[in-house]
Write a structure and sequence with these properties.
With 111 residues, the protein is of the alpha+beta class. It contains three helices and five strands; from the N terminus they run E-H-H-E-E-E-E-H.
């Protein structure tokens, strides 16, 4: 499989995988040790959607590069792309997917 990326674009799947694994670990720890409302039977899609939302924020915050010149922070114009899509657009896509997945999980849990 060919992975097409430019500059920091390769970090997009890394952010996504780390966020999803981290949220799942946090979910299992909270369910095991706190219980209560977290011990209820809810759909895994909610947890996965929250992972997508965290990943989208992380991607958005790291999508631009800055350097300090003479004590002033200046933006560097670099092309950070993953499969020809910019990191900022990936963050918007992951946010949209995250919201849809959370809504779907809530609907599944209610039904």
């Amino acid at each position: 499989m060919i992975i097409i990326y430019k500059n920091r674009g390769i970090l997009i799947p890394v952010y996504l995988v780390v966020s999803l694994i981290g949220v799942k670990i946090l979910d299992s720890v909270i369910t095991k040790y706190l219980g209560g409302i977290f011990a209820a039977d809810y759909d895994f899609q909610i947890v996965m959607g929250i992972g997508f939302l965290i990943s989208s924020v992380w991607t958005y915050l790291t999508s631009e590069d800055y350097e300090i010149v003479n004590g002033v922070k200046e933006k560097m114009y670099m092309n950070n792309h993953f499969f020809y899509i910019s990191m900022k657009l990936w963050s918007y896509l992951m946010f949209g997917f995250g919201v849809l997945i959370v809504i779907s999980g809530i609907v599944e849990t209610i039904n």
